[in-house]
Amino acid sequence: MSKIVKVGLIQAKWEGDVEAMIRKHERMIDEAAAKAVQILCLQELFFAPYFPAEQDAKWYELAEPVPGPITNRMGKKVKEHNIVLIVPMYEKEMAGVYYNTSVVFDADGNILGKYRKNHLPHNPPGFWEKFYFKPGNLGYPVFNTRYAKVGIYLCYDRHFPEGARVLGLNGAEIVFNPSATVAGLSKYLWELEQPAHAVANGYFIAAINRVGVEAPWNIGEFYGSSYICNPRGEVIAKGSEDKDEVVVADVDLDMIKEVRHIWEFYRDRRPETYGKLVEL
């Protein structure tokens, strides 16, 4: 019998206010639960605008500890619906030390752990992440949730195949990539890189992108197009480019074994030849 897991992704426009954004996501979590979603992921920095579009220390005030007020609210939703929930947020470890983090809740409402974004863009104009975040220090963990083994990559991470491979080696069945990416130079990569990761590593990819133009920065339009991709590189569900949406697909975890028995990439790896990858 196939092992089917219903996966959901939330893409949403910035509401202009943190509390309004949290409330909207609470409603959309309810909507996902009504569709019988078992594993749900929110977009990068879900409760905020994409503030790394500028450099201003006022945004440090948005950072919260984990656990903290926002994770407490999200945990209540998890318990209400018995879903696995991935919550990307601005994490405060201590004053002056902040991370771009995704917190993973298991279906019982407890925090399984977190992933801290490893690769940080600092590409003017519009992407000043090293001003706000310290590079991640937790490696590439995989979380054994009630429904599947879940890995996290965060936005800019997707341009680096090394971590995507490590997630596979660590046992990930589904890798979620919450993002904030705008139309322009990298849009073609949105449709290319992550299906390639899915094929190369034999797992499912679930990629999330926010929607809309965020004032006052207007660095471009966040084009949504959130999607779920199977280990063959086929997109099995995709969101719109311009509206709030819960994107849902049934994921057959048995396909992972089926595909890996055809493409034996893990068997045929030659790590003893890859030393150049870790030379400084």
Entry summary:
With 280 residues, this protein is of the alpha/beta class. The chain is 22% helix and 28% strand.
Helices and strands in order:
Elements: E1 4-11, H1 18-34, E2 39-41, H2 69-81, E3 84-94, E4 97-105, E5 111-116, E6 122-123, E7 127-128, H3 129-132, E8 142-144, E9 149-152, H4 161-169, E10 174-179, H5 187-190, H6 193-201, E11 204-209, E12 211-212, E13 222-223, E14 227-229, E15 235-238, E16 245-252, H7 254-260
Parallel strand pairs: 1-2, 2-3, 9-10, 10-11
Antiparallel strand pairs: 1-16, 3-4, 4-5, 6-7, 8-9, 11-14, 12-13, 14-15
Helix pairs in contact: 1-2
Write a concise keyword list for the protein shown above.
280 residues, alpha/beta, Nitrilase/N-carbamoyl-D-aminoacid amidohydrolase, 6-stranded mixed β-sheet, 16 strands, globular
Structural overview:
This protein is of the alpha/beta class. It has one domain: Nitrilase/N-carbamoyl-D-aminoacid amidohydrolase (4-Layer Sandwich), CATH 3.60.110. The chain is built from 7 helices and 16 strands. The chain has helices at about 20-35, 70-80, 130, 160-170, 185-190, 195-200, 255-260; strands spanning about 5-10, 40, 85-95, 95-105, 110-115, 120-125, 125-130, 140-145, 150, 175-180, 205-210, 210, 220-225, 225-230, 235-240, 245-250. Strands 5-4-3-2-1-16 form a 6-stranded mixed beta sheet. A 6-stranded mixed beta sheet has the order 8-9-10-11-14-15, covered by helices on one side. The protein has a two-stranded antiparallel sheet with strand order 6-7. It is globular.
